[in-house]
Amino acid sequence: MPEKLKLSKKEKEEFRKLLLERKNSIIRKLSQFYHESKEIETDTALDVADKAETSYTKEFLLGLTDSEREQLQLIDQALDRLEKGEYGLCQVCHREIGKKRLQIIPWTPYCINCQEKIERGASAK
Q1: Residue extents of the structural domains in the chain
Q2: Which CATH superfamily is domain 8-87 in?
Q3: Three-class SS of residue 96?
Q4: pLDDT tens, 82-120?
Q5: Residue 85 Ramachandran class (φ > 0 left, ψ -120 to 50 alpha, else beta)
Q6: Helix axis angle, 9-42 relative to 48-84, nearest 10°?
Q7: I need a surface site. Which of 17, 37, 42, 62 has the fewest CB within 10 A?
């Protein structure tokens, strides 16, 4: 069973605040993208070139949201780990994730070593 990372109450609140701020920012951005894609959908394109551009713009906007949705999931998982007292522990090796790394990427589930291994494995495919 992994050990718990020793975070002060103040540190926990700071990380919770960082996570919630990022989550709210993503939700606002996703909402904006959704409304923009709906506007594009309702515009009537006059010719084939206009239709192609409209289609491309809509796909571009919706494609941007995929990574945002993934980040939202990571943030929710990090908030859950924070509540369970498991926040700041790598989900692979169960060692502490450096606090500097958590301050930069508070939703990260992996320490830098495991993240690098995962990325090397993904690039090898």
Answers
A1: 8-87, 88-125
A2: DksA, coiled-coil domain (1.20.120.910)
A3: strand
A4: 999 999 999 999 999 999 999 999 999 999 999 999 999
A5: left
A6: 160
A7: 42
